[in-house]
Amino acid sequence: MVTDPEGAAESGRAAVDIFRELDNMAGEARAHRELGYARWVNRDYAGALEANLKALWIHRHLGYRRAEAGDASNIAQVYRGTGDYDSALRWAEEAVRIDHELGDELAQVFRTNTVANIHRERGDLQAALSLHLKSLSTCADLGIKNLRASQHLNCGRLCLSLAAPEEALEHFSSAARLSQDTGYTRDEGYALMGAGVCLEQGGDPSDAAENYRRAVELMEKACEDSGLPEDLSGKAEALSLLGAVLHYSLDRQAEAFNAYVAAAATYRKLKDLGRLRKVLMNLAGLRWKMEVSEDSARHYEEALDLAREHGEQEHKAAALASLSVVYRDLGRPRESIRSGKQAIELLRGLDDPQAEAYVLTSVAESHHALGHHSSALSYLKRSLRLRQRIGDKGGEIGALHDLARVYESLEDTDHARDASEEATSKEVALKEVVRTSSTVERRG
Q1: pTM exceeds 0.90
Q2: What is the DSSP letter of 444?
């Protein structure tokens, strides 16, 4: 089915013909269903739809309602694969309706999950959450702990997406307890990762890190038990989360470095290049913070190569912007300017004026280091205009101070004084706005 899709399809068609000769309609429907699955696995959605519809028609003719529900669910998955969510939803709800008629509550849970996932993919997160909560209630009534844990995980993830971390934490904590009771190591690991994210958002990075550490151990055990790449990917995800909280919130650089390196090695093994690129960017930023600029540049360069390979313009721009800074730290201002210019061009196309202003300032600094004062002024003025346009008061003040410094290098004292005085004036005004806002908040 995977290595020879046409061979699989040919075998499926042959089975259909034999069952038809034998006048075995149930067997023919089963063969159509297998053929549909083979087509679906290989993303031949038209072929998969045709085969599953034939299976549905036969089961409907025979009055096999349970099988008909399965066919409707399979058709929903085919439409889901094509991105036709309206059709997918219609067929998935038909499957739920049949299961309800048959009184099969367990099947209803699984089919309702499919409906919820379709709502989530089309962007209606509240509808998805409502359905998962309904399934959670059914699982509780049926006393099925492992399915309750799965539903808590689904609800937790949706609550996080809906910016409700406290509710999400309750679901993840419940999922972790239930998974521990049932021995579902994988689910417990994912539940602890989710709880860690909630704790980070709630301002408790230390407890978040402990959750991630435990999740790494659990996912490693899941890998040893199953050997599945999904569990290995889960371990890498836990390592990435651990590295990030140690890096950005707890400033434990050596531990963060070890976690990032382990995560990167795992993603390389899995050939998961998208997640590898993200870890490399974090690792590069950490090495720059640790003042190991050569390593930082190497990781940013690898991340840039991956972004180029996959045509990811936003990620290319981020890597190039970072390299502009790191190359300057390494005493390579010309490479810094070249990377910065490429980043600016990409950011202009992405309509990201804040990032563009930042890189313009970086390029100006590299020009200034080379003694190209006129070029430095030009880039700083562009940065200043962008910051004024988007209302970046702090950045505007910084750009004015930078302008004053370049004017001083040119011995243009009048312009240097004007820029410096304007920066000071805006700084005073900004502090007054902050002070006034703080006073109003306290009174409120």
Answers
A1: no
A2: -
